[in-house]
Amino acid sequence: MFCIGFMLLSVNFKCGDKVVKEKADINYVRGELEKLAPVVLQADLSSLPPSERRVLTRLVEAGRIIDELFLLQVSNENPQIREQLQNSSDPNDATYLELFNVMFGPWNRLEKDKPFINTKEKPLGAGFYPADMTKEEFHEFIKTHPSEKEAYESTFSVIRREPNGKLKAVPYYEEYAALVSGISRLLNEAAALTEDATLKNYLKLRARDLLTDDYFDSDMAWMDLSGDLEVVIGPYEVYEDQLFSYKAAYEAFICIVDHEESKKLADVAKYLDDMEDHLPIPDKYKNFNRGSSSPIKVVQEVFSAGDTKAGVQTTAFNLPNDERVREAKGSKKVMLKNVAQAKYEKCWIPIVNTILAPEPLKNVSFDAYFNHVLMHEVSHGLGPGILTLEDGTKTTVSLELKELYPVIEECKADVLGQYNYLFLMDKGVFPEDSKKSALASYLGGMYRSIRFGIDSAHGGGVAIQFNYFMERGAFYRDKNGKLNLNEPKLVAAIRDLAEELLLIEAHGDYERAEMLISQYRTMTPIMADYVDQLKNLPVDIRPLFSIDG
Q1: How far apart are CA 40 and CA 457, in angstroms?
Q2: pLDDT of residue 291
């Protein structure tokens, strides 16, 4: 089914067309691959009964189709570029193909989407919109066709240009019908095989919802998963749409639950209302209407696909994004511990050994790093969500902040994550004597994200934090050129920046967000110097899944 679907989506290209016209220097491409340390991600499947192993096989097959779907969402030229590289007689093209597969396209996600195949710049709207469509054209169309606003701004539609030049919104389930139907079939097969009632319910509903793009029921069912497999598959994050941040990209996580580690973190979920109440903003902006169910799962990743696998790897995620589900049930935080451990060993430790002063360096730890990742995900679910405008219209933070939302939200989750980490130390959830380790590890982790590029949502959010804290004297460069921190100033600055970010979201204030980003998301000489010191270290990992054999 997967092969047939891919062939159907390739027929638009004329046989023999050559789409690869130019290529970057081969040494550059090899160097970019070397930035990503290959790691075989191990996951213990020994406890799974035979039925669930068969389920796993179907889910991985579905994940491979998700890879194809996302490849098309990045650019509809991608299948033909890949085919030409695969069929090339030039041995160097295997290297170009390897980087193409890592990046899901001909643009280098580690270097502001710099092209390494051909010279065409990546459209801000990726493959979600016509490449020649401007923001002004989109807004003008909605202004003159207000009844179509919902369809055009939908998270699950692409915008296409008709032969007469007019714009047209097409639902995902129609645009990607051949591939989506294959995923749906595999999920139904997996549902029939599993003995886990909660997983069976989720898979059946998700198989159905993929064919309608109404994911409410299956998102609600996903919140209730309670077995050994943690699975999410569908369109979620909007980061690939850098034009408006409206359109969701397909992804998949297929994981084994670590029940023992999950129990250790369950206490965090008990304090959600306390954390909301403790936010440094007026009470009228606090959101106590979200659901109280907020499970935290620690898992071992078995396979990932699509958006989450492109370029830099995800360490944790907080879903669903649908505010209706969040208000009804809350959200789930999933921590990918084997991914986090691999990043810590391959990337994080070499960085802190290079840039940190002796005092903070002696205090860094994996537990502090992992706990901040957890609190980052928890903090995505705190603060404003659904807004009411002056005219009474209901909207969301993401719609109001448009393309600025991803960097503001990632920055908020980082800062608020540290703010809440310190708060839960006071509550006894985390050891009170781990404060120095938490702050040192927070500083130490900055440059792992900044190296991804400050134009990315995560890297840009960290650049804002670093420059803000440097300005406040919370971070500073010592006489030996190493990074150190001032604990009282850092604690105060964390609170102040958290307040600013939360108020931007509470007001849906696009201009205020733009000002903050313009002022602080900059590559300063100090930042550039540290990035240069790290140039020969791995930037991230390149996962090789043991289930692939």
Answers
A1: 27
A2: 62
Interatomic CA distance for residues 358 and 93, integer angstroms: 45
pLDDT digits (tens, 9 = 90+) for 214-235: 999 999 999 999 999 999 999 9
Q: Is residue 46 in a domain?
A: no
| 282 and 211 housed in the same domain | yes
Tokens 């995505």 sit on residue:
380
Rounded Cα distance between 465 and 461, Å, is 7
Number of structural domains (the chain) is 2
What residues contact residue 85 under an 8 Å CB cut-off, 6+ apart?
20, 93, 94, 96, 97, 100
Question: Element (H or E) spanning 326, and its range?
Answer: helix 323-328
Q: Could you tell me whether strands 316-319 and 540-545 are parallel, antiparallel, or unpaired per DSSP bridges?
A: unpaired
Residue 518 domain flag: yes
* Angle, CA of 331, 221 and 171, to the nearest 5°: 90
134 assigned to some structural domain: no
Check residue 292 and give its pLDDT.
Answer: 62
Residue 361: inside a domain, yes or no? yes
Range of the domain at 91: 80-121
- Residues 193, 336 within the same domain: yes
What are the angstrom distances between the C-alpha of 542 and each of 37, 41, 343? 6, 10, 10
- The contacts of residue 137 (CB under 8 Å, 6+ apart) are 167
Cβ-contact 184, 210 below 8 angstroms: yes
- 113 and 231 co-located in one domain: no
C-alpha span between 304 and 310 (Å, rounded): 10
Rounded Cα–Cα distance for residues 416 and 418 (Å): 5
pTM exceeds cut of 0.85:
no
Helix 50-74 and helix 177-193, axial crossing angle in degrees, nearest 10: 170
